[in-house]
UniProtKB/TrEMBL annotation:
<dbReference type="Pfam" id="PF16483">
    <property type="entry name" value="Glyco_hydro_64"/>
</dbReference>
<dbReference type="InterPro" id="IPR032477">
    <property type="entry name" value="Glyco_hydro_64"/>
</dbReference>
<feature type="signal peptide">
    <location>
        <begin position="1"/>
        <end position="37"/>
    </location>
</feature>
<keyword id="KW-0732">Signal</keyword>
<feature type="domain" description="GH64">
    <location>
        <begin position="49"/>
        <end position="399"/>
    </location>
</feature>
<dbReference type="GO" id="GO:0016787">
    <property type="term" value="F:hydrolase activity"/>
</dbReference>
<dbReference type="InterPro" id="IPR037176">
    <property type="entry name" value="Osmotin/thaumatin-like_sf"/>
</dbReference>
<dbReference type="InterPro" id="IPR006311">
    <property type="entry name" value="TAT_signal"/>
</dbReference>
<dbReference type="InterPro" id="IPR042517">
    <property type="entry name" value="Glyco_hydro_64_N_2"/>
</dbReference>
<dbReference type="InterPro" id="IPR037398">
    <property type="entry name" value="Glyco_hydro_64_fam"/>
</dbReference>
<keyword id="KW-0378">Hydrolase</keyword>
<protein>
    <submittedName>
        <fullName>Glycosyl hydrolase</fullName>
    </submittedName>
</protein>
Amino acid sequence: MTPRHQRTLGRRKVLFALGGAAVALPAAALIAPHALADQAPRRGPGTAAASLPLTIVNNSGSFDNAGVHLYVVGNADGRQVRLTPEGNVVPIAASDNGPDGFTDYAISLSGSGETKLSLPHMSGRIYVSLGAKLKFKAVTDGNGDAALQYPAGWVTSDPNYGVLHDCAEFTYNSAGMFCNTTMVDMFSVPLSIRLTGSADQVTGTVREGGREAAFAAVREQEAFSRLVVDDTRIIAPGHGLDAGLFAGDYLAPYIDEVWSTYTGRDLKVTTNAGTFTGRVRGERFTFDGPAQVSFAKPSTRDVLFCDGALAAPNDGTTGPVAAVLGAGFNRSTLLSHPDQPTADASVFYRTELTNHYSKAVHTATEDGRAYGFAFDDVADFASYIQDTAPTGLRLTLTPF
């Protein structure tokens, strides 16, 4: 599978429209999952069926099926939509809001055992909430179209802040199924996805005791400790920074050292386009190679969100280099490894100033893969799987 940092990268830039901005600004309430359709490999006519069996399994051990609520929301044919229990894709409508001002798009699980659904072509998120329903609000965006405000578990004023919930992301279209479990925004409910078809693939499974260990590991890091919200969730440090829970200059010493080091030596970055060789010149990290690309010194926020100075356009050159730099900063491998990217996970997160949140969620999973930050697919360390001839998708709530 071609590493996705060497494909188009547009979804990374718009990913965070799902967050606090979606709560504060209805016009920004756009679904932007990690597995957007433009991430699918470009092919001829696809072979994927018009619908895919979707199975939901509640092995949480903490909530029975009656206490688990399911939501499948996203985009189809340029509109924001939701999935009904009957397997139909229905457009979002402002009239869906009830007397309390929120929709009730919850799909109930079967009384016992597995829950079987049918998933048509769409891109979106599969949310699960435990113990209480989520409050999605239908709004009108800046173009006058119906849109949906998504839960933002890192915003204390969000109506879903007190609800235990999480999600997986997917795109299903004629080219196949492309899906992942995401921890880019937060980690709360252990989820595993299994995709069958031309292969049988599983990712995202949290090892026994992994959730508790991740909470403890983040709590033990003084700079990260405020990101742990009771036993409900761990907020990703980028959102924590915006919420005043994480220092805005946390990574500044490491960033400064990278800039200083590569003023006098080369950093090589290899992508599908070829090898880029860079040095800091006049405060910009400038790379020569298949094309010349350059970057201003990023802030801690830029690194954590993989945005700003590290934004990745869909140009085949700047984007892939930005992705590798973003991964190198988050994994703190840029100083130790002047040839990037490195695929040796044993050297990741070894410095004191590193993304300890991402380290913790990777350590929590059985296969060592997780979406701890937006460029975590660099060198294939994201909890992402795909199949161009899928026969079924299985989402499992695994034990806490």
